[in-house]
Amino acid sequence: MFGIKRDYILKGLDCSVCAAKIEEALNGHSSVQTASLNFINKFLHLDFKDGCSLSLDDIRNIVSAIEDGVVVDEVKKSHDGHSHESEDDDHDHDEGGAYAQIKKLIYRITAGLIFLSAAIYSKDPAAALAFYSLSYICGAYPLIIGAAKNLFTKNLFDENFLMSVATIGAFGLGDYHEAIGVTIFFQIGEVFEHYSVARSRKSIKSLMGLRPDFINLFDGSSFVKAPPESAKAGDIIRIKPGEKVALDCLITEGETSLDMSALTGESLARRASAGSEIPGGSINIDGLISARVLRPYAESSVSKILSLIEGAAAKKAKTEKFITKFARYYTPAVVFAAVALCVVPWLFMGHDFTVWFKRALIFLVISCPCALVISIPLGFFGGIGAASKRGILIKGANHLEALNNIKTFIFDKTGTITRGNFEVIDVVVESGTRDEILKYAAIAESHSSHPIARAIKKAYGAEIDESVIGAYEEIRGLGIKALIKGAEVFVGHDRFLHDEEIEHSVCIGAATTVHVAVNKKYSGYIVIADELKPDTAGAVEWLKRQGINTVMLTGDNHITAENVAKIAGIQDFYADLLPHQKVEKLEFYKNKYPGSGHTAFAGDGINDAPVIAHADIGFAMGGLGSDAAIESADIVLMNDSPFKIVEAIKIARRTRVIVYQNIALALGVKGALLILGAFGMAGMWDAVFADVGVAVMAILNSMRAMSVNSFK
Ligand code: ADP
Ligand code: MG
After folding, report:
1. Number of C-beta neighbours around residue 644 at 10 A
2. Annotated catalytic residue: which of 14, 235, 412, 556?
3. Is 289 in a helix, a strand, or coil?
4. Shortest-distance Cα residue to atom 22 of ligand 1
5. Each residue of 442-495: pLDDT tens digit?
6. Which residues does a 6 A CB cutoff place in the pocket of ligand 1?
7. Catalytic residue at 691?
8. At what angle do helices 159-172 and 125-150 cross, to 10 degrees?
9. Which residues contact 439 (CB under 8 A, 6 or more apart)?
10. Which residues have C-beta within 8 Å of that of residue 476, sequence separation ≥ 6?
11. Whose CA is nearest to atom 27 of ligand 1?
12. pLDDT above 80: residue 614
């Protein structure tokens, strides 16, 4: 039994610390197994315990107790796992919200500054004090309200509390400039935070821009504008130059160049003409084409990609989880340290109270954890964004982080290392004729989507009459058994013949060998060859240089496997494997290098989807790959190129560097200033730098993770 899973969107969620608290509160709830809230795109994913759930109102109550004004809505998923239309409008709405928030902050900052200058220039001390108070209130009132609201909750020690106590204290001591300075700079930091989050959301939205608005649908007499969801398989649509191809379709008329960079990260345009299959999400550059829709929108490439990106939010990197947890203990610890700092020297050593009280206030300002809490998810989010722009879909920050730890990289052969574009190169006859062998093989393979099946059907060339097939069975990793016009036909691996005790003279031919037997009598074999993908060797070479072991698994025969491994430069290979034996081999490597994220596997999902699912990091070839592979993979390579693995690892490394830099920066600067502050060597202005300055620097640094240009 599994519990219910639901997704929600939290509109108006604007505070990263609150997001962490909401997540914590939900994780602590008795009905909830796991809760995961992504602050950047505001998606909340809830896994309920068996037989439990929470009503929308319950969730709303929990959320609004922590951050007021957040609107919680459930995101309904259609059967394919992709969420509904309406939520895009929500994204729009949200972004507007972020900018409105920024505007409000700027008004407040301006008003604060005006009152501040009035105070500085006013001659009358009473008037000056009044202006100082007004200026302080402009900046501080949201902090104070926030802190007051938290007074009676578990979340007492948040940044509102820290800042309110520190600034009220400073104001009380007559340090007006410092008190006002802290609140104003704090708000400038917030402007930055809101802006960077809005920008990240926008960049992910530009990916969402894959989503086309309309199609030109043929209604029997003319082409009319219609929403992409309204088309069925078989409908005819027309795509004009410059328009986005909405659905996966097959060109029936016309010729054009297509830009598929949104899907594959590959900027080279591709020519396509009548008969070519084109995926939704590509852009028609120059020709007018008509095309037949292959599958409805919900099953199209675009909608699959979108649901993957949405799902990525739910899975957090270990570092991210660690920092959230860290912040939870760190803030109260600092508050107690501040209290001690103020009380101990005064009570027990007879020092001047005001001096130590001031130091304690400075302590509080320095200690705000915002820089960490915001910049780290932002960094991972940026890394995932940069990868998707290059045709690498990473389904979670945890996978992006794990890419740094790979020790063994295991490849499937067919379709992963090789093109999976088999060509029949020879038919060796033992009994009967060449045409007979090909015909039997082609008929037997007619239902299979295996690359071998495609090659045989292509070599046969003629139309296949499927009515002649009786009983039919595809045995994964071995071949096909079919009853054709009463004759029992075997097509497949050598082991198949041995299992069935069919006498045969040759076990393995020059390349991939597909044996054919009719009524237990050996007819001969078909030799088919495949080519290495052009960038396989380069990718393998790079992985080896990083000290990563490379391994190849295949169900194909030993000789072919050895050849391929040699040309590709792969260190170890295992041939003649059945699908479950591939899983066993993977387990072997997982045990050899225990620890999470050490064993990666890349496959096309044909006979290896379970291996993809079992690997610490499973890669699927998104173009060739089966739906099952894309579903079970952690990372999908849209253009099937093994070199994308190298890029993914490079992006992961850059992201990790950025995240670690931010942690070091924030903890380093804050740690140093806390010590200086305790000894009275850092003042309020230094504290503001430690807080806002560091947050801004960390955010700017995180935004680098998103850029594709600086990445090589
Ligand atoms: P790989 O591990 O290279 O991806 P598979 O596990 O898909 O290969 O298949 C392993 C072997 O099983 C193939 O080399 C072939 O001999 C046999 N085989 C699998 N499916 C078929 C099929 N549909 N027709 C003929 N032979 C097949
Ligand atoms: Mg395969």
Report:
1. 27
2. 412
3. strand
4. 479
5. 999 998 888 899 899 999 988 888 888 888 888 888 899 999 998 999 999 998
6. 412-414, 445, 448, 450, 452-453, 474, 477-480, 491-493, 512, 514, 554-556, 606-607
7. no
8. 150
9. 460
10. 578, 579, 607
11. 479
12. yes
